[in-house]
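Re: folding output
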Amino acid sequence: MVLGRASGRTQCGVFPDILRHLPENCLVVANNTRVIKARLSGKRPQGGRVELLLSPPLEKLRGPSSAAGEDSAECEALLRPAKKQRPGDLISFAPGFYARFLEHLGQGKGRVRLFWKGDLAAVLEENGRTPLPPYIRRAHAEDAADADRYQTVYARVDKAGAVAAPTAGLHFTRELRQALISSGREWAELTLYVGHGTFAPVRCADIRAHALHPEYAQLPEETAGALARAKAEGRPVVALGTTSARALEGIFQAQNPERSGPERVGPKRVAPEPAGSVGVGGFPRFAPFVGQVDVFLYPGRPFRVIDGLITNFHLPESSLLMLVCAFAGRERVLAAYREAVRLGFRFFSYGDAMLLL
């Protein structure tokens, strides 16, 4: 579905038609993160099973091995059941692979210390499961298909660490991506290691009080340069997915606080770690970036970077739907959703797509 932000008019077709609708000179920015098998099922020595969903990217867990050849790192995780865990409890996943529970963080989250031997990515690949969204039910026998389907074709092995896929990108085949580039449109990439907070509903009576879970982002120098050139030349920037959108807007907000609009109600942002600077013709700067972002985009919040958005159809009461409403207008988006329901569009992670321009 193509939705005109100004007119509210919709058009429908199949996804490869997107090349007929994207501006000919646009810059498309995609999130190249790779999903890891971050869902772990373990046992407690005193009995009972525990399920963990790890949170941070792999590179934040890597560290020196102990004298015994054992690696360890602290991280956050969602636990089920959470209330039964006590500080010091051990959770065993496989020989040489276990966690020690450290403390409760509220809302089903806890801090654990993970212990393993060898390459962590290989250990998770062998012992973990694909962290599908909670509304998707899969038997173990179907995990192999999901492990392949729940990755974009441009996901990079060295960017592994997300616990959810940037699902708008699942619509792209290698051939379609190449056709987009061959058409003269520009393709650039950043990394946002999507966390479990992407599925958290907004429960606050005043949505401005909702705090997004911080996510680790990386903006490479070549993408910062591409953004600066596109803005200086007046070319549209199209975010491929809400993860790319919130990474771009969050990084811009961190690097240009004076142009970021009113602050939201809630905790302060995590301090970023920008380095260097790329800017053209006096436009707002885009610098290479490594750090955390937690920008919450809801109706009334300004967008400073993106001019278009490719996304899926989202859950009610989700921060993702609020982002889309903020970008194209609440009434226009909800009217388009009603039309999508009438036409039998599929919603959520494995569903159909929207292009908002």
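--- second protein (sequence, then structure) ---
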Amino acid sequence: MGSESPDWRNKLYNNKRIRVNNWIRASQVRVILSNGDMIGVKPTYEALNMARSAGLDLVEISPNANPPVCKIMDFNKFMYEKEKQEKENRKKQKDNVLKEIRINPRIGNNDLQTKIRHMEDFLKEGNKVRVTVIFHGREMQHKDIGEGIINQVQEKLSQIAELDGKPSMLGNRMSVMLKPRSIKPQQKKEQAPGS
């Protein structure tokens, strides 16, 4: 049935890992019906005839098994469900981007507050933020100022962020990683109105 449709051929060629109907190379296959019942091992031509008589396709779902496992099903529907699942997985899998905010130890209070607001926006989007204090020349002797800035940032963002590791010093840079704080299930219930 599906072999007459041009869409079917395009999908088959685009996804060469899935063999269907006459493309199945094994001489014998383990056959599963469309309702999930397992028939057992059959010669490929016999399984193919069973699929054609049901108006469906014979789809190789486990090619590495011995013998390969094939299911009698509608291939177009199978590909549609597979694409739908992949799209759903891509939605769920958000790319975590690492943002970096660089700060000078001589930064003014208003400028620091602006940078903290930027960090807050990044964290609310689900991104990690690396806060880096860069020391120049004699500023290296006053690392306590950098630690104070990092502590101030951490304190301001403590509601939405948590440390991802300890502050580290590498050359003339002191940095710390902040990640979005995960909300516990109990907190989610409390925040939901009318629950």
